[in-house]
Amino acid sequence: MTAATATTTHSHTIHVSDASFETDVLKATGPVLVDFWAEWCGPCKMIAPALDEIARELDGKLTIAKVNIDHNQQTPKRYGVRGIPTLMLFKDGQLAATKVGALSKSQLTAFLDGHL
């Protein structure tokens, strides 16, 4: 990932756009957890700190990418995102697992442990 393709807001999560999704997620080395979210989404804001913590703890093992569905509408449509937050785990360019709704940090960790 280069500064040209991803904009970081937190040191361990990246913001991905429709334009950079293929490079940042599908062609990434290692698994990528994509968080489909929006500014107005309360549950999305609730899980953000847990995602940041997990990103820090699994640095080097997992990338957490955030896609703002209001600014990037092609990617959520392509993957059938109907509600947010939707978390999709990609491995080797393939969708490996999906979770919809706000999860606690322990639920997020359990979800990831089952797939990493």
Put the structure in a nutshell.
With 116 residues, the chain is α/β, with parallel strands linked by helices. It has helices spanning 21-26, 42-57, 74-78, 105-113; strands at 7-10, 13-15, 32-37, 63-68, 86-91, 94-100. The two termini are 21 Å apart.
Largest beta-sheet characterization = 6 strands, mixed
Number of helices: 4
Helix-strand makeup class: alpha/beta
Ends apart, CA distance between termini: 21 Å
Beta-strand content estimate: 25-35%
SSE string, helix = H, strand = E?
EEHEHEHEEH
Count of distinct strands: 6
Q: On the 0-100 scale, what is the average pLDDT?
A: 91
Which regions have little confidence, pLDDT < 50, spanning 5+ residues? 1-10
Strand order of the largest sheet: 1-2-4-3-5-6
Helix content: 25-40%
Radius of gyration: 13 Å
Q: What is the 3D shape?
A: globular
Characterization of the model:
The protein is an alpha/beta fold and 116 residues long. It contains four helices and six strands. Strands 1-2-4-3-5-6 form a six-stranded mixed beta sheet. Helix 2 links the parallel strand 3 and strand 4. The longest helix is centred in the middle third of the chain and has 16 residues. It is globular, with a radius of gyration of 13 Å. The two termini are 21 Å apart.
